[in-house]
Structures are given as C-alpha cells and as structure tokens.
Amino acid sequence: MVIKSPEAFRTISEVSKDLSLPQHVLRFWETKFAQIKPIKRGGGRRYYRPEDVDLLKGIKNLLYNDGYTIRGVQKVIKENGSKNVLFSNNKAHTKLSQKAFTDRENSYISEQNVHTRTGQSLSDNKRKKLMDVMQNLVDLQSKISSK
C-alpha cells in the first residue's frame, strides 16, 4: 500500500475507506453540498483535494455524531461558511457545537408552560452550574471526535 502525503489528491475509493462511507453516499453529498467539488479527470474519475476530504469529515461528523439533518448542515454552512465545518478545524467544530447547544438551550427556555407543567424552575446558580457541566461535555465531545 502506498502512503500518500497529506496534500495529495484522493480517489473516491480512498476517501470512502477513510471515512467508512459507501461511495454512493459521497456522490449523493456532492449533489446536496455545492461546496464539495472534486476534480473530475478522464472517464469522470473523481479526485478529492485535502480541503474536500476535511469538509466531508466535518459534514459526516455533523450528520452522524451531532444529529444534524442534511438541511441542517446546509444551513450551518450557509450561516457559518464551509471553512467552519472543516473537521480538522477543532476550534470551529467546538464553536459550532457551542452554538448548537446555545440554540437548543434557547428553544428549551422559550417553550411555554415548561415550568408550570413540571412545577420546577432552576435558580440562576443551578442554571450556571448546569451550563458549565454541559460545556464540559461539549468540550469532551470535541476532544473525542478529534482523535
């Protein structure tokens, strides 16, 4: 087996093995995400640049690990740019996780009758402690996914 440099272009079969995804999924994602633009050579053979592979890893992470839908990932890319979805960019991944967590938190807070249904509410101190614990979980998740 030949070891390629990190800057080398990859074929669809190499990317498929690297990401543990079938080739047809990669082709499908090309139709859903305009940012994925492999170079096509003779006979339509695809060659992915390192940036394409990092973007695919980031998309896979958002879809498979963070529970986003394709439309959700499209929205994240539209709002934050594809550079912030690159899997190798851990700070951007953490930032996206934090934003997603904050968005979820806001949707929970905005739900009406939550406190009246449960008869409970959190004090500011307990809420802050809970948010700290949740932030630690987000940080741990980003560390785990970067390995």
Percentage of residues assigned to helices: 55-70%
Query: Could you say what the CATH topology of the largest domain is called?
Result: Multidrug-efflux Transporter Regulator, Chain: A, Domain 2
Count up the domains.
2
In what order do the strands lie side by side in the largest sheet?
A: 1-3-2
- Broad shape: elongated
Architecture blueprint of SSEs:
Blueprint: E1 10-11, H1 12-19, H2 23-32, E2 39-40, E3 46-48, H3 50-65, H4 70-80, H5 90-110, H6 114-118, H7 124-146
Antiparallel strand pairs: 1-3, 2-3
What does it look like?
By secondary structure, this protein is mainly alpha-helical. It has two domains: 1-88, Multidrug-efflux Transporter Regulator, Chain: A, Domain 2 (Orthogonal Bundle); 90-147. 64% of the residues lie in helices and 5% in strands. It is built from seven helices and three strands. A three-stranded antiparallel sheet has the order 1-3-2. A hairpin with a 5-residue loop joins β2 (39-40) and β3. α5 (90-110) runs antiparallel to α7 (124-146). The radius of gyration is 19 Å and the shape is elongated. Mean pLDDT is 77; it is low at 88-93 and 102-119.
